[in-house]
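Data card: per-record layout.
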Amino acid sequence: MRHVRDNQSYFLYLIFDADTCVYVGETSNIFWRVVKHKDKCSSGSVIYLQEHTEKEEVLKLEKHYIRMLKPKFNSRYCQPDQLELFTIGKAVGER
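The structure for this 95-residue chain is written out next.
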């Protein structure tokens, strides 16, 4: 429960069902997110977690894995021509 109270860690998580990635996400409260995603999981689902100290790193990894794996429950970053409104830390067009 340490991660829920002090919010010093960020998690990248991948939900796999039958050896296929169905969702990629990031959170600072992994316990709550797992509960919220129970509809994406079956009894045979496996959730892989990776803990990080920097939110920016987790966001970059989330984007990378969504684009690479194209999970069925993710819509963000899956389209090759998708307009991205934000980059890490600033809006597109900001310098």
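Known properties of this structure: Confidence is low (pLDDT under 50) at residues 90-95. The longest strand covers residues 10-17.

See the next section for split statistics.
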